[in-house]
């Protein structure tokens, strides 16, 4: 699996956009970038994923650089409920099961 | 509601006790997982079951014994645990091999918070 690096923590003012960066410089051509988040003492929750194009859903937007070596998760209008640990994960191209390895992630604090 | 249910939500046990954690998924998935999360640490993958067959044992001590009787149920049997085993134990499921790789994502339960005294 490709390794990812994220800042350990970030703050964001409520109502502002939260931009969470992730570096994955060793990503392979057929590996996807996935984002999950974990609210305190709960199970992680899937947010979004992408290969090379920018993606948007009801939760967030994902911007992947053209060389695919980094990406940014954007929460357009952060709320207090977005306070969580955000994990950026690069998946192997295909396996018979989803051996997803989580790193330490970024702890996002949304401040009133 | 993620479709993955874990019971109990909290568990306190002594080092000589035997207990079991239960996980049930209502999503029709074909893979199930146990993860461990100690305080302020990343999630650690423990076991993976693929069509009821164990395909991954991430060097987990034998005092943790998984069981997958069918593709919807997963158990983690615990015996003679140590205080350092206190952690949040998370179950997850996923569907793979559907031909649509982009939809193969993990669904997690809420976890069992385990305290070993």
The helix fraction of chain A, in percent, is under 10%
Instruction: Report mean pLDDT of chain B, rounded to a whole number.
Output: 89
Widest β-sheet, arrangement of strands of chain A: 1-9-8-3-4
Please give the radius of gyration of chain B in angstroms. Answer: 14 Å
**DSSP helical segment count of chain B:** 0
Order of helices and strands of chain A: EEEEEEEEE
Mean pLDDT, all residues of chain A: 90
Structural class of chain B: mainly beta
Order of helices and strands of chain B: EEEEEEEEEEE
Number of helices, where a helix is a run of at least 4 consecutive DSSP H or I residues of chain A? 0
Strand content of chain B: over 45%
What is the β-strand count of chain B? 11
Q: Roughly what fraction of the amino acids of chain A lie in strands?
A: 35-45%
Secondary structure: number of strands of chain A = 9
Can you tell me the residue ranges of chain B where pLDDT is under 50 for at least 5 consecutive residues?
none
> Largest interface: which pair?
A-B, 23 and 31 residues
